Amino acid sequence: MRLAPEADALIMAAAVSDFTPAEVEEGKIRRGGRKELELRLVATGDILRAVREGNPELFMVGFAATHGNPVSDAREKLGRKGVDLVVGNDVSLAGAGFGSDDNEVYIVGPEGEQFVPRASKREVAGRILDALAANIGEERAG
Description:
Layout: E1 9-11, E2 19-21, E3 41-43, H1 47-54, E4 59-66, H2 70-81, E5 85-90, E6 102-109, E7 112-120, H3 121-141
Parallel strand pairs: 1-4, 4-5
Antiparallel strand pairs: 2-3, 5-6, 6-7
C-alpha cells in the first residue's frame, strides 16, 4: 500500500487467504478434555480493491484461482475489482498450478482473453509480462 503510488504497475501474484480465524489464541491450544474445537472464520480485507481505490491510475494485474473454467471468474473479477488484467487458472488441473513447475492460464482483459497453454511457470510469467507491456502501452497512449 505504501509503495503503490510510486509504481507504474502492480502484479498481485500471491493472494492472501479469503478467510482468517475470528479469534487468535496465544500459544498452543491444549486438549484438556475437549473432543471438539470450533473454528470461526471471518473474511479478510480486500487488498486489491484497497490498492485500486487509493491508486486509480496504477496499472494492476490480479489473479483468479478457480475450479473449472477460469475465464468467467477472471472476467467477473476484472469488473468487480477494477483491475486492468486478471490471470485466471484452474487449480484443479493435475500437473499444473499449485505444487507443479508448470501452469496454464487465461490472461483476461477488457478486450478479450488470451489462453497460455501449459508451459513452465517461468514461460507463463513471461507471457503475463508481455500482456502487461502491451496493455499498459495501449492505455498510456490512449
